[in-house]
Design a protein that fits this description.
With 281 residues, this protein is α/β, with parallel strands linked by helices. It is 41% helix and 27% strand. It has eleven helices and 13 strands.
């Protein structure tokens, strides 16, 4: 059986790896007023943050169009027997659910939707792992089983600089956002039960970053980390410093830097940072 791998634009996988593993992708959309852009195709991260800062407009996001799914699956069906379709967490987007509805729409293609329960490059890591297994001629069931095991081992924490984006996205009330900004509260966010939730509320950015790093170092000290991801919004400086510090202490652990693209950046805002990692066990 010849198996394809498909994801969506919020995995933020480098183009070189998309091409190397022949990964298919459907774009989510970002809307500024009446103008809609396909993430990664019509709007990249640099242009997105510049546009958000210069216009003062709070953008909106939407899942891929059904037509994009149909077109991509039909293209896959020309060469493959099955596709593992890995998507952004079902708790923050309907993308995964749309993939599920497509299972009966495409003839001659077995579609295996997979809810990564995460997003950003941490999602992308699952996609790459699936592609490697497909190259090894593993069955869809074997790939899904491995992905499910990996999903239990992922950790990712986000810190936002401005609570207003969470408030506009419905994650915090207006009063909570105003009070939090006044008190300089920097909530640590994480994924739980497919949704973005508050892990801890911490005063000041410095303390929030220290809390994330303490949790990372705890796993690193136990030699229990496969790979670490450093994720930034519009400014790479903070995560570059953290990555350099970490690599000096643990040079044997693989690390990668990625970004919050337009869709995720809409909800987290400029100045957000994230650290994610996969545990060995």
């Amino acid at each position: 059986m010849k198996i394809a791998i498909m994801t969506d634009s919020t995995a933020y996988i480098p183009t070189s790896l998309i091409e190397k593993y022949h990964i298919y992708s459907v774009p989510l959309n970002v809307q500024f007023n009446e103008e809609s852009y396909q993430e990664g195709i019509e709007l990249g991260p640099v242009e997105f943050y510049e546009k958000m800062n210069s216009t003062g407009v709070y953008p909106k996001t939407s899942q891929p169009a059904v037509g994009d799914f149909l077109h991509t699956y039909r293209e896959i069906a020309k060469e493959y027997d099955a596709v593992i379709s890995l998507h952004i967490s079902s708790g923050i987007s309907g993308t995964y659910q749309t993939a599920r509805t497509m299972q009966q729409e495409i003839e001659d293609l077995e579609i295996y939707p997979f809810d990564t329960e995460i997003t950003t490059i941490v999602q992308g890591y699952l996609v790459i792992e699936a592609a490697k297994l497909a190259e090894q001629h593993k069955t869809p069931e074997e790939i899904i089983e491995h992905l499910t095991d990996l999903r239990r081992l992922m950790r990712v924490y986000f810190m936002v600089d401005d609570l207003g984006h969470l408030q506009r996205g419905g994650r915090l009330s207006h009063a909570q956002a105003m009070l939090g900004n006044l008190l300089k509260v920097k909530p640590l966010l994480y994924f739980r039960d497919t949704k973005i939730q508050v892990f801890e509320k911490i005063r000041t950015k410095k303390r929030a970053i220290k809390r994330i790093m303490d949790m990372l170092y705890e796993d690193a000290e136990q030699d229990n980390i496969r790979v670490v991801f450093w994720i930034y919004a519009d400014d790479e400086h903070d995560v570059h410093s953290l990555r350099t510090e970490f690599e000096e202490k643990y040079p044997h652990i693989k690390t990668e830097t990625s970004y919050f693209g337009p869709v995720i950046g809409t909800h987290l805002g400029a100045g957000a940072i994230g650290v994610g990692w996969y545990k060995k066990s």
